[in-house]
Amino acid sequence: MQYVNIYGKKRNIGKKFIEPIRLSGEVPCILYGKNINIPFSTSLEIFKKLVYPPEVYWVSIQIEGEYKNIKAVKKEIQIDPISEKILHADFCKIEDYKPITLEIPIKTFGRPIGVSKGGEYYSPIRKLKVKAIPSYFPEYIKLDVQYLDIGDRITVKDLLKKEYHILHPLNTLVARVKNSRIVSTDHVVKSSQDEKKDLQAKEDKKIKK
Questions:
Q1: Distance between CA 166 and CA 131 in Å, rounded?
Q2: What is the pLDDT of residues 75-116, one digit of tens each?
């Protein structure tokens, strides 16, 4: 996985210190984990890589006064529902051999053969909750759909890997191709024209009699 570098400054705790931090263009954060709990602040700009892209990033945090960088992962980012401004961020220190849980995006490859036959592709889920030690996390979960025919489906059971554990029931639907309910316009027009021809032929027969 890719890393985002963060430089942070230690901050004071308390509501009266929070607003000045935000007004200065920074975000109040906290880094926690085994034997560590450090309140700090960092630039708002850095969160463009952490909030908006679908990819998951590790972070390498260098905090003023600390002698080494700390590897961590984003755990929670609080966003104001009205202004959509970032209010606060929590980061959790990574232990190399301690499993953690993250939501990993699904990346689709190919065009289902069932779609070319008139079927409709359906995928109700965009991320999967995965548990693993940090070094085994994938950047994304590959979803190869090119061989999906009408009536075929892919569930969590089809995506299992020994490197990580997907925390969803095995029968959770990930993707499928179903019959389309849309009737071909050409077929409707042709049927209508055939009906008109039949009616016209009947009328012609009546006139000749």
A1: 6
A2: 889 998 998 889 999 999 998 889 999 999 999 999 999 999
